[in-house]
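Exercise 3.2. Students should predict the tertiary structure of the chain below and write it as structure tokens, then compare their answer with the key that follows.

Predict this chain's 3D structure.
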Amino acid sequence: MSVGRSSYPGDGSSTEQARADEFLAMECSRDQLREWDRRHYWHAFTQMAEYDPLIIERADGVWLTDIDGRRILDGVSSMWCNVLGHRHPAIDDAIRRQLQQVAHVTSLGMGHPAPIRLARRLAELAPGDLEKVFYASDGACAMEAALKMAFQYWRQCEVPEPGRDLFLALGHAYHGDTLGSVSVGGVARFHAMFDPLLFDVVRGPCPDSYRLPAATATVEEAGQYYLGRYERLFEQYGDRLAAVVVEPLVQGAAGMVMHPPGFLAGMRELATRFGTLLIADEIAVGMGRTGRLWACQWEDVVPDFLVVGKGISGGYLPLSAVVTSPRIWDAFLGDYADSKSFFHGHTYGGNPLACAAALATLAELERTRLVEHVAEAERTLRQALESLYQLPQVGDVRCRGMIAAVELVADRATRQPFPWEEARGHQVCRAALAQGVWLRPLGNVIVVVPPLVATEEHLHRIADAIRVGILSTDWE
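Answer key:
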């Protein structure tokens, strides 16, 4: 007997079905969408009492188009993840082909060719001997998995060290918003509310190349100063550290803080010397953002865990992964009765559609050699943004690959920031939006993270919009 719609509760004649069909085919007015957006949609990191709807209807390349038909340059790659631009034909085609097979199968006890092929490709592309791939759906959940893997490793490795129950994290770090990733995070404004729920960590200073320690005069001296501070923490807590967690080269949510050269390699050396593990959070800085596929490659660092997300699927679908070594993998092997399995997983981890998008993204990066283009794009972006130094409110312009920031200060000489509550960055970004460029600030820092396919014209347009935004803001 065939089963049709009428076989289920609420068939086509019911009020419920009619309402469901109505929403499926509904064409809402723009005003209705704005009303529902304000009333029902709770936006992330957004004060809803002040929210002014910006509703994107479609996109292409570096451009977003809102429901009013206004074209807006996506200056932050839709939260740093859309590396190849919107509606890329190769990724579109890969997802369509995958849809003809299956949209989703679980990763619990079974596989599918797309996540298998992607795991193999990541194993080929990852630094050193990293070849074991565990999937999650977003960066925070991948970080959560890496933290738990590191903790469990020490309890069932060949020579267990159950006393390793602490993590070492950087000042002003950001690793996501799950409780584990918040614990190793250090952005108090985001997470102070949840302190009673978090586990203790050892935290060192933020290795900032702009606001140098008082005892130093150069970035190189600052790098040695920071490593000295961390060496003392390793000496104090080394035999209790399960892992040290680092955002390589650039700390994103801290305000695009650029690390001194050699800091990452120094942290790898310290972790090795004191026998602990290194977790590299490449969620924001990986996938070619810095001019290498992985930021770790700039300092020839092989972490114990490489955590990837955001751009891995080209910004299309939720996907993240932890890539680790046989050493870690082996500690989780044993008989069923040993209960050494990694009892952790997410429903959509290794989703075939997302993995198909990721395979297409990696193939396009290779085919176009786009990562090699990032160095040239960085020079253009840096030059365009450094012209903003003419404005007294600009304290710093910093750039690493296609990651850049313009920091606004109340006093350039002392580098004194504007009070957070004055929302200076938001004011500038609102004015830039009126110029047709979408940017999102981190406090007083204007973040510029365009798609890797952005042209010289696009990069100059972003800089011009920031200039207009600063000039049109009331600084009194």
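Discussion points: The chain has a mean pLDDT of 95. The CA atoms of residues 75 and 450 lie 5 Å apart.
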